Amino acid sequence: MTTGDGDLLASPLTILGLTLRSYNALTTNGISTVGDLLAHTEVDIATLPRIGPIVLAEIKAKLSANDLPLREGRSPYWKRR
Predict the structure, then answer these.
(1) CB within 8 A of 53, min separation 6: which ones?
(2) CB-based burial of residue 56 (10 Å sphere; 0-12 exposed, 13-18 middle, 19+ buried)?
(3) Residue 21's CATH number
């Protein structure tokens, strides 16, 4: 991706090319931008409703393809919805 960091973080999830299933799972849980997604860890995302192993694997693959890793560990501010 060639946008600046601020632009990228504010970009909608659609720029990642996620399937509708993955996109809906994230937006249902209040994650609508790339920055929202990157603010969470893999553990945070995995514990959300509608996020199973297939959706999690796709999210990680799409982020990895764009050199965008999820945070490591568990976010102390994340609350399960």
Answers:
(1) none
(2) middle
(3) 1.10.150.20
Amino acid at 19: T
pLDDT of residue 2: 47
Structure tokens at 23: 């996109």
The token pair at 30 is 């209040």
Higher-confidence residue of 75 and 48: namely 48
Euclidean distance between CA atoms 22 and 58, whole angstroms:
8
Contact 56, 31 (CB under 8 A): no
Domain range for residue 41? 5-65
